[in-house]
Amino acid sequence: MKAFVLKGGGAIEPIVKVQEAVYKYTDYEEREITALDGVSLHVKKGEFLVIIGHNGSGKSTLAKHINAINRPDEGVVWVKGMDTRDESKVWDIRQTAGMVFQNPDNQLVATIVEEDVAFGPENLGIPPNKIRERVDEALRKVGMEDFAESAPHFLSGGQKQRVAIAGIIAMRPEIIILDEPTAMLDPAGRKEVMDTITYLNKEEGITIIHITHYMEEAINADRVIVMEAGKIVMEGTPREIFAKVEELKALGLDVPQITELAYELRKEGLDIPADILTAEEMVKALCP
Amino acid sequence: MPIKIENMSHVYMEGGPFEYKALDGINLEIQNGEFVGLIGHTGSGKSTLIQHLNGLLKPTSGSIEVNGIKIEHKSKQLKELRQKVGLVFQYPEHQLFEDTVYLDIAFGPKNLGCSPFEIEQRVKEAMELVGLDYESIKDRSPFELSGGQRRRVAIAGVLAMKPEILVLDEPTAGLDPRGRDEILGRIAQLHKKYNLTIILVSHSMEDIAKLVDRIIVMNKGKIALDGSPEEVFRHAKELNEMGLDVPNITHLVNRLREAGLELPDNIFTVERAKEEILRLLRGGFND
């Protein structure tokens, strides 16, 4: 039996363990596609993990394995000790690990915000007075309590995504997986959603797994993993990952603009650190 | 095909309980061959505005003329105009429906009554313009292509109509950086090589900064700012209040300026920032 080595140390059992997961499917032309090709990953409780990689690299497939939408053909995925292949655990797993998707308009089902948020707890069979409590609490945590009685279609994209997140929070999950939640939002909406996710992670201790194409959204993560062709090809802190500008570009990915500028300036012979991530660091490097 | 809009307003559900003024007294002229970025937060009126450009919506008051044709009621001219103004909606690949890429792109020209030879020419040309290989892709199902390729098929379908004005609503939403760069590169080429008038709607200030000559900022149904990227991105505070932003690199340059670096206040791309910083520092070393 292979022993697990915990990245980042600590004796606490990781909340998500993916061990040698392989997932295959057949496409329109009956070709076999290996979407996950032996992925192993541990996610610590309370961690803020960002997954990047181009479309088709396996990011979303990996995410779907963590709330048992997909199950591995080979290998095992455990969520809080529950094996996702165990049919009897599916609802417990989905309550533990909630998922938010890209398009806010496809996720809201009710005509009133609070009814939408109540949908999850109702399905869990929570008594009505407790549902009220959970809905109010969830809307407060995403800062949407003033919109409890609004109709979702009058909300902005960022507000809709926050309601979708509230719907997940009302299930009291320990993990929230977000699959490009900001892709369709304007800059203000993107900021609202990122502030909400950060709050839930830092203040509420919820484990976040965030998939994104916006590299700026990865800067404050605890850890970044990069996927390519169904494998994890890079892993590290944002600083470690984004210092590898050329590797990322070869994978068709971006680096944050500030890191890119630092890289370009270094290429021109300027003596500044290679792993500059923020404006403060750049100011310090250029204006000593 | 110049666009001329005078005091145009659009009210949804006029007189009803949900009456909503989406456009409020718009005045705007766009000349042939301009590359315009249209920005504004969700609900600012951008989509309503672009749907007026080919007559999908008609103004409630005021007027709009495209190439001298007034858009007001059904007429033969309006049909002609729709060929000349190509609208690429958000997630256009959701509108693909044919069995093969060829048939999907041929759909428009076929409806225009083009000859089979002309249709084939147009499909070939449109695929070339978006960077799809004709021989290897024409017979494939659009549904087995990658997201970025599907989107290019959808854009090719609009280009096969030979528009003179191309309007794209968030053409890179949901694409990865490589897919985004491919599409934006093709759009830039259409502008440069064929002098197409292009109106690009985007939430990415970085993309806008890299491409366009002119930015129109919409807020609450009005035009809030209109000018070159240099002029518009000087208004960081106003843009912020409108739920928008300046490119990240502009934030950085503003910080560097505050810290005493004498950089110009009109930098909004990484390339420019690099040039100016090097000029400044190297100039300093030479003294």
Set down the secondary structure blueprint.
The complex is a heterodimer of chains A (288) and B (287).
Chain A: E1 16-26, E2 32-43, E3 48-52, H1 59-66, E4 74-79, E5 82-83, H2 90-96, E6 97-100, H3 113-123, H4 128-141, H5 157-169, E7 175-179, H6 187-202, E8 207-211, E9 223-228, E10 231-236, H7 238-242, H8 245-250, H9 257-267, H10 279-286
Parallel strand pairs in A: 3-8, 3-9, 6-7, 7-8
Antiparallel strand pairs in A: 1-2, 1-4, 4-5, 9-10
Helix pairs in contact in A: 3-4, 3-5, 4-5, 5-6
Chain B: E1 3-12, E2 20-30, E3 35-39, H1 46-53, E4 61-66, E5 69-70, H2 76-84, E6 85-88, H3 101-111, H4 116-130, H5 134-137, H6 147-159, E7 165-169, H7 177-194, E8 197-201, H8 205-211, E9 214-219, E10 222-227, H9 229-232, H10 236-241, H11 248-258, H12 270-286
Parallel strand pairs in B: 3-8, 3-9, 6-7, 7-8
Antiparallel strand pairs in B: 1-2, 1-4, 4-5, 9-10
Helix pairs in contact in B: 3-4, 3-6, 4-6, 6-7
User: Which two chains share the most extensive interface?
Assistant: A-B, 40 and 41 residues
Radius of gyration of chain A: 20 Å
Strand percentage of chain A = 15-25%
Number-wise, the strands of chain B total 10
Calculate Rg of chain B over CA atoms: 21 Å
Strand tally of chain A: 10
Mean pLDDT over the residues of chain B: 91
Please, what is the oligomeric state? heterodimer
* Total count of helical runs of at least 4 residues of chain A: 10
How much of the sequence lies in strands of chain B comes to: 15-25%
Largest sheet of chain B: 6 strands, mixed
Q: Pairing-aware structural class of the strands and helices of chain B?
A: alpha/beta
Poorly predicted runs of chain A are 1-6
Can you characterise this structure?
The complex is a heterodimer of chains A (288) and B (287). By secondary structure, chain A is α/β, with parallel strands linked by helices. In chain A, 34% of the residues lie in helices and 22% in strands. In chain A, strand 7, helix 6 and strand 8 form a beta-alpha-beta unit. Mean pLDDT of chain A is 91; it is low at 1-6. In chain B, a hairpin with a 2-residue loop joins strand 4 (61-66) and strand 5. The mean pLDDT of chain B is 91. At the A-B interface, helix 6, helix 9 and helix 10 of A face helix 7, helix 11 and helix 12 of B.
